Amino acid sequence: MEITVRHQGVDQKADVQMIKETLWVHYNGRTFAVEASGPGSKRKKSSLAGSSDQVLAPMPGKVTKILVKVGQEIAKGQAVLVMEAMKMEYTLKAEISGKIARIDCAPLDQVALGKTLVKIEPAKV
Predict the structure, then answer these.
(1) Degrees, nearest 5: CA angle 116-95-31
(2) Which candidate, 70, 114, 119, places its Cα nearest to that of 94?
(3) How far is CA 101 from CA 66, 69, 91, 122, in A?
(4) What integer pLDDT is reported at residue 40 of this predicted model?
(5) Where would I find the H helices in 1-125?
(6) CA of 24: how far to CAs of 19, 20, 31, 48, 58, in Å?
(7) Residue 62's pLDDT is what?
(8) How far apart are the first and last CA of the chain?
(9) In Å, how far are 1, 7, 15, 27, 109 from 10, measured between CA atoms?
(10) Residue 59: exposed, middle, or buried by beta-carbon count in 10 A (0-12, 13-18, 19+)?
(11) CA separation for the pair 11, 51 (Å, rounded)
């Protein structure tokens, strides 16, 4: 989602994405993470929050490794891919157990903030 903020009479645009309890802001080539904390942090999740059956890009970056295959069974907390952003590597993990339903990226892909990278079919209980 894009937001516009007026600062000193000039409109500035930034891309933002709420993922779990973190607001990711990408502005002017830089990415900032703002953690929700304190008594007011418990809030209704917006439609931008994404669901736990998806692994989303927490910031713009490059996919460097995909650690799973379509159809593979995975456990909650298992690493599914690695991406590079801001000269750092980030390992993205599954929030739920299940089966990899879809992989929507490939190594070396440049991905945008909030892009769905992997879709997980929840494990049947």
Answers:
(1) 50
(2) 119
(3) 14, 9, 19, 9
(4) 55
(5) none
(6) 7, 10, 7, 11, 7
(7) 95
(8) 34
(9) 20, 5, 17, 15, 33
(10) buried
(11) 32
Residues 6+ apart with CB under 8 A from 121: 53, 98, 99, 100, 101
In the chain the domains, ranked by start, together with CATH numbers, are 2-122 (2.40.50.100)
Instruction: Report whether pLDDT(45) > 50.
Output: no
pLDDT of residue 50: 43
Tokens of 31: 């990415």
Sheet holding 54-56, edge to edge: 54-56, 116-122, 98-103, 73-74
Question: In residues, how long is the chain?
Answer: 125
